[in-house]
From TrEMBL:
This is MotA/TolQ/ExbB proton channel domain-containing protein. It comes from Thermaurantimonas aggregans. The chain crosses the membrane at residues 73-97, 103-121. Keywords: Membrane, Transmembrane, Transmembrane helix. It comes from the Bacteria.
Amino acid sequence: MAEFVHLKNSFDIHPTLEKKLKIVELSQKIYQKINISSLEISAIASEMDCEEERADQIASYVKGKEDHIETKLTVSAIVAGAIGAISAGILLANTASGNTPEVVGIGTGLIEATLGILILTNKRKITYYHPGNALKDIWTAPETSSIFPVSIW
């Protein structure tokens, strides 16, 4: 760029065909470098978009699995509670049942509490492997990046 500016200033003072050709040649080199840098930026941006989409798909899949299990556990807790309440009610109606209704109530309460705890702890974790970890380079900030081209880094 310094050579281009110097040559441009020199051409303005003493225009010659050689200087004009050199200015055109330097202009083409500058535009070529700008275009290559632009392509590198576009390529990295596209790669980052793909990685983001891939991570979003995995997150959606894991969330779907969590939701599916949570629904099953919730329905199971509701069914256990209903069966316990109905059983205890029937047993209470039978005066000769002794302390069985209390045992049924405590048992189904424990089942419901266990299912509730399982709902609360239903969090899936996965290890996300990807060969080009751009965030690692950004986080650790090495002198040269293994992911980003020199012009971008």
